[in-house]
Amino acid sequence: MARTEPVQITVVGSGTIGLSFAAFYTVSHRYYTITIYNTRRKPDSYTNSKLLALLPLDHPTPAIRYASTLQEAVQNASIIQECGPENLLFKQSLWSEIERFAPQDALLWSSTSGIPASLQSQRMQDKSRLLVVHPYNPPHIMPLLELVPSAETCEDVIQRTKQFWVENGRVPVHIKREITGFVANRLAFALLREAIHLVHQGIVSVEEVDNIVEMSMGPRWAVAGPFKSYHAGGGEGGLEGFFRNIGGTVQACWEDGGRISVGGEWEKIVFEQAKEIYGVIDIEERDRITSKVLEAVRGECTSQSSCYDCGNM
Amino acid sequence: MARTEPVQITVVGSGTIGLSFAAFYTVSHRYYTITIYNTRRKPDSYTNSKLLALLPLDHPTPAIRYASTLQEAVQNASIIQECGPENLLFKQSLWSEIERFAPQDALLWSSTSGIPASLQSQRMQDKSRLLVVHPYNPPHIMPLLELVPSAETCEDVIQRTKQFWVENGRVPVHIKREITGFVANRLAFALLREAIHLVHQGIVSVEEVDNIVEMSMGPRWAVAGPFKSYHAGGGEGGLEGFFRNIGGTVQACWEDGGRISVGGEWEKIVFEQAKEIYGVIDIEERDRITSKVLEAVRGECTSQSSCYDCGNM
């Protein structure tokens, strides 16, 4: 990363994720210049207005530079962040081009939610440069970034990326090996699978599942993740004590858990309930309340605990 | 439930859950008198000081009545809430005694996290009276209550119980059928299983799993549960659109998910990491921050959405 200010960040793609990252850099206290390269050639004015909608109400129109060629977009960039379509061939071809034009020490990040760096980098001369930096949507609100290197990604790239995000008050987590779906989604999908099973069995409705999670695990896990929570639940015995006390119930739940598949007959029931209850969801309201939740957690940070505000990891 | 104030609530058992419920009733704006029946004959002064620790700093010492016999404890109660040990024979014998002494219209609630009402009620004359009211720990902080009737529990008991909790600003959810572990724990345990698997595989550490959840799903699900979140994630297509877009990845994660069991070799690794990182956890701090998170969500409630503050369900 260039050590002189300003740092030029190039965002490739101006869909939901690309614009959300651009919004994050725009409101950052650090000095970034932002270049957007529209892979789908949307008008700059359209992209600008979409971006503006993500910024605080009183924020001035950001000085985004729109590049007309990939070369122009990346040739002076310190960070190049790919937020394009989830298409392997597109990404492979993009990286082989970017590699030709980008400065040697530029960080190359893919925002993919599922295509590993080892596949994306196959047409690159130097596969060690590419790193998956998977955000939790939308990244201008949510603090998590999963850093998922391939076996060839070099340690320096991982460390500089981690430093960038910690300095920006975010929580980068280094996923040690490439794995299907990375970690956050795997965890969430495991819970989702059981939730679908219970709705399909008629035990609870879609809305009741959401009420349950919003009023129990959600707020709890915003403060203390599952291991920390159950470690506390075990009293002086910690996590081991927890499993000693109720391991039998945990195992019984695991054995009894649903093994439904995508495309199963549950879809009709679950999709219809969701549509009927929620219609079209106001994402702005959700994001505003989520920010308040994150502030509530942040405001109470102590220097002992993990904290994305003070950078303790 | 008696319609005249004050309502007498008897809590049977003064462990963590019993005292937490007593604390909730103590700070309620409604007019309750609280009776505690210590199944393990702890000194009243000890119980009182434990209860006081759960109340706001400036709260006066509550006027708890301690009953010396079960008959004295329940004979004038409108609500009898069992928070005793998780032991089937204990609960069966307790309910058959309570039934003899309690007013005919008293609500009989068990706080069990796993022993269904259908088993607990087997020695009762009138099995229709018993309802499981399973809190999320600690109930003086967490809004969720799972109402889990047996097939014999009468509808009136369910409805009066639901009304009581809604009037108290809480979120009772009616679980339609008895099921192992009820719903909240089944959902959480499903995620926990995958989390353990990923730590055991060396993909992430215990602390990293907690960081991931605290910085992504936790705050998100405090605001919008999993179905609502993914319904929003699907844009105009809703939940169906979400599965159309990334159903393949979801299925791949499900198929690749860990199937670990309680007692497996993962325990040594995971228990040790948890112990090393967390030691003994400050539950008071966790609960204080959790309250702030819940306030952040509550403060933003709109009359359209489900809300435990204004009673919209």
TrEMBL record, chains A, B:
Annotated 3-hydroxyacyl-CoA dehydrogenase C-terminal domain ranges read 181-247
For this chain, the family text in UniProt reads: Belongs to the 3-hydroxyacyl-CoA dehydrogenase family.
Identify this protein by name.
3-hydroxyacyl-CoA dehydrogenase NAD binding domain-containing protein
Alphabetically sorted, this entry's keywords are: Oxidoreductase
**Top-rank taxon:** Eukaryota
One GO MF annotation is: L-gulonate 3-dehydrogenase activity
- List the SUPFAM superfamilies hit by this protein, alphabetically: 6-phosphogluconate dehydrogenase C-terminal domain-like, NAD(P)-binding Rossmann-fold domains
BP GO annotations? fatty acid metabolic process
- According to the entry, what is the taxonomic lineage of the organism? Eukaryota, Fungi, Dikarya, Ascomycota, Pezizomycotina
Query: Is-annotated flag, keyword Oxidoreductase?
Result: yes
For the keyword Nuclease, the answer is no
The protein's matches in InterPro entries, at most eight in alphabetical order, are given as: 3-OHacyl-CoA_DH_CS (IPR006180), 3-OHacyl-CoA_DH_NAD-bd (IPR006176), 3HC_DH_C (IPR006108), 6-PGluconate_DH-like_C_sf (IPR008927), 6PGD_dom2 (IPR013328), NAD(P)-bd_dom_sf (IPR036291)
